[in-house]
Amino acid sequence: MDAEKNPLDRVPQHIAIIMDGNGRWAQSKGLPRLAGHRAGTENLKTILEACVEFGVKYLTIYAFSTENWERPESEVKGLMRIFRTMFDRELKNLHENGVQLRHLGKLDRIDAALRKQVIDAIELTKNNQRLILNVAFNYGGRAEIIHSIQQIIRNEVEPEEVDENLVDQHLYTAGSPDPDLVIRTSGELRTSNFLIWQAAYAEWYFTPTYWPDFGKEELKKALLDYRERERRFGRVSSEDA
Ligand code: FPP
After folding, report:
1. Distance 98 CA to ligand 1 centre (A)
2. Distance 64 CA to ligand 1 centre (A)
3. Any ligand 1 atom below 6 A from CB of 18
4. Which residues carry out catalysis?
5. What is the pLDDT tens value at each position of the chain, 241 positions in all?
6. Most CB within 10 Å of its CB: which of 72, 137, 180, 210?
7. For a pocket test of ligand 1, which of 19, 62, 64, 192 has the largest count of ligand atoms closer than 8 A to its C-beta?
8. What is the set of domains in the chain, with CATH numbers?
9. 0.85 cut: is pTM over it?
10. How far is the CA of 193 from the centre of ligand 1 (A)?
11. Cβ(43) – ligand 1 distance below 6 Å
């Protein structure tokens, strides 16, 4: 590959992904929606391995939103089963590969057995440093900002002391840098309440590819696109300064 165009030249420190299109992927093949979620889970493993290989330090995935509870009961139950199986089968491997698991969202509505799996996985992997995997699960961006405000009020902070840093420190993502790149698969062009505070200056990459088909080569394409962009954070280009 042309050295000038190597997507791995400037790998984002933090990638966030809205893994969309599992249902349509399955429907396009005449399969039930849950088959799409299972294929999406297999793909997540591929992308995780690629991120470790490429030196990505933080990966945040949108696994289940606060709105996803409104889906048919059979789909919600099936998804929960998939999450439980993923923990049973993959946790050891993730741990051995230096992945630290963190949870973004609320654990209150989640079935007790799965909640315990999440808490135990966080404890087991808390010292791993190779890749931090933030799993947004029962997550909503607005709820997260409300959570931060509530914590700040509880701490009786003076209004003048409230700044971006303080809000950051009380978000579910406290301790993770903001995402550099947010990827959304399946052709939808929305943020869907995902990291609405943290992604304020992120680069966005949208692709029509359904999540189960978004493999390592597709990730490289996204990284190449990211590499070509100039991030100005509201300032002028360095060439114009
Ligand atoms: C979006 O596809 C996907 C989800 C709501 C669930 C995401 C879950 C996985 C990829 C499983 C792997 C995750 C973990 C943590 C094991 P969709 O159902 O909205 O697709 P559609 O828009 O085509 O209907």
Report:
1. 25
2. 7
3. no
4. 20, 68
5. 555 678 788 899 999 999 999 999 999 999 999 999 999 999 999 999 999 999 999 999 999 999 999 999 999 999 999 999 999 999 999 999 999 999 999 999 999 999 999 999 999 999 999 999 999 999 999 999 999 999 999 999 999 999 999 999 999 999 999 999 999 999 999 999 999 999 999 999 999 999 999 999 999 999 999 999 877 777 777 666 5
6. 210
7. 19
8. 14-227 (3.40.1180.10)
9. yes
10. 15
11. no
DSSP states of the chain: --GGG-TTTT--SEEEEE---HHHHHHHTT--HHHHHHHHHHHHHHHHHHHHHHT--EEEEEEEEGGGGGS-HHHHHHHHHHHHHHHHHHHHHHHHTTEEEEEES--TTS-HHHHHHHHHHHHHTTT--SEEEEEEEEE-HHHHHHHHHHHHHHTT--GGG--HHHHHHTSTTTTSPPPSEEEE-TT----TTSSTTTTTT-EEEE-SS-GGG--HHHHHHHHHHHHH----TTS--TTT-
Tell me the per-residue pLDDT of 149-166, one tens digit each, with 9 for 90 and over.
Answer: 999 999 999 999 999 999
